[in-house]
Each structure stands twice: as C-alpha cells, then as structure tokens.
Amino acid sequence: MATSTAAQRREQAKRDYDAFLDQCPTRELLSRLTDKWVALVIPALVDGPQRHGQLAQRIAGVSQKMLTQTLRTLERDGLVTRTVTASVPVRVDYELTPLGHELFPVMIAIKNWAETHMDRVFEARTQYDARP
Amino acid sequence: MATSTAAQRREQAKRDYDAFLDQCPTRELLSRLTDKWVALVIPALVDGPQRHGQLAQRIAGVSQKMLTQTLRTLERDGLVTRTVTASVPVRVDYELTPLGHELFPVMIAIKNWAETHMDRVFEARTQYDARP
DNA sequence: CGGTATCCAATGAGATACTG
DNA sequence: CAGTATCTCATTGGATACCG
C-alpha cells in the first residue's frame, strides 16, 4: 500500500481542522501562538541556543515569570527544547526544535508587519480620533 | 530632490521600530494584532464586505460584544471600514482596507499553521505530559 | 543563575438585558 | 439588525521574596 507523504498528511490536517469552528482544538492552539511574548521569543531563538538570561536581555521588559512561563508552554508544545547543564551555577539553554523553526517565518512576519506598518496605523488612529 | 519610494520608507520604518525594545510602540501594535479574534476576523473578511451577522455566523462562538469590539479596534487602526446603510433595520457592512489586505497574509498564515501542525503539537504535549 | 511560589492589580471576555 | 450598557468571573501578568 502507498504510504501518504508528509505533504499529503498536512493537506489532510488542514481539511480536518478549521479554526472558524467552535470547539475545534486549533482555537486553543491559535490562542497559544498569539500569547503576548511568543512573537518575540521565537524570533529571539532563531540564531541558535540562548540562555535564559540572554533571552531576558534581548526581549526587554519581559518579566522572569512570563519568560519562564512562555518557554515552558513552547517546550510542552514541541517548539523549543530546554537543556540543563549541571554546573554551579546551573546553565539552561533553550533552542528551537524543527517544529519551532517552522513556526519562525510566521512569527517574524507578524513582528515585521508591526514594525513596518506602525506609521500607517498611527495615521489611521489620528484620523479616527479626530472624527466629529 | 529625490523623493523616497514607499519601499524605502518601509525599510526606514523597520529600522526605526524594534519590537525587542521596551517602550517601542510596536509592542502595543503587536498585542493588538495578537488579540484573540483578529486572526479569525481578518481572514473572514478577505472575500469582500460582510455584515455583522454574517461574521458572527462564520466565526462560530464569538460573542456579539467581542466581535463589535474587535471590529472597532480594527477600524480605528485603519484595517477595516465600517459602512452604515440607513434602512429599517439598519445594515452595517465591514470591509478590509488596503492596509487590512496587507495584513491578511500574515493572519491566514498563523491560522493555517495552527490547523496544519495541530497534530504534531498534540504529539509533543502527550510526550511532555508522560515524562517522569 | 534559573526557577518557584505567592499575592494582587489589570484586563479579557461571556451573559444578559435594553435601545434606535 | 446592530450596538450599548452593566455585571460578573476568569485569566493574565507584574512585583516581590525565597529556593536549588
């Protein structure tokens, strides 16, 4: 029998799941992907493994709690690996998995879109707020 | 003097704004773009104007309040237009602006990613939860 | 250094009822 | 039909202090 290819399975998945539907599990995944810090954490990891402290510096303003929490969720979802090196003090590295690398283009796109179109959004807001 | 092209201005904007920085206004825009219903509303509008009721049907499970609230924010940000036709009962149509159409590819990408990779995320979660 | 635990303020978001 | 107004509850996320 013919085994389905990975591409075929992905096609199948796209038919099975539909985020427009209520109670579809992709709704929950969608809300994970749009979590506050995900669009910054994934791009921050794209150039290779990063330590917790490095990430905290790179992503200015993130609290330790939220960074850890975000990384845990990403780890559970198979997007990031967490590697502990037993030393004193302990060293922890985070790295994108292959699945995480597949998510990267989507996340960098959203980040870039915001940076690129900020001005036009500002203009629109000014006009909207100036309405009678 | 040479006027800068739109492409050049976009390049400039990408240099000026950096969502990795705290207090950068793109942080706020990023959080708007990742609001719960935006990744569903934008794709739902891509094929042309839609009435409030149509959208509510298409995006199963959204409350009227959240739909209106999301559309208002998108309108203020210049991504959607709101057109009222005075009749009885009144008719309201929402439509993507050119800026909204520019955002569409990003939003559909995230929606598609979730639908396409749901299975792999599920597997990862199962493995993670089964750990000692 | 990295992580956990606790507490608490702010926001998000649903349900319901009412208006033009 | 579309929208507003409350009311209420759950979730988010930050600050702080403590542990390995």
UniProtKB/TrEMBL annotation, chains A, B:
HTH hxlR-type domain boundaries: 24-122
Keywords assigned: DNA-binding, Transcription, Transcription regulation
Alphabetical list of Gene3D superfamilies matching this protein: Winged helix-like DNA-binding domain superfamily/Winged helix DNA-binding domain (1.10.10.10)
Xref: PROSITE patterns: HTH_HXLR
GO molecular function: DNA binding
InterPro entries in the record: HTH_HxlR, WH-like_DNA-bd_sf, WH_DNA-bd_sf
Signal peptide: none
Keyword DNA-binding listed: yes
A Pfam family recorded for this sequence: HxlR
Origin: domain of life: Bacteria
PANTHER family (alphabetical): HTH-TYPE TRANSCRIPTIONAL REGULATOR YODB, TRANSCRIPTIONAL REGULATOR, MARR FAMILY
The protein's name in its UniProt record: DNA-binding HxlR family transcriptional regulator
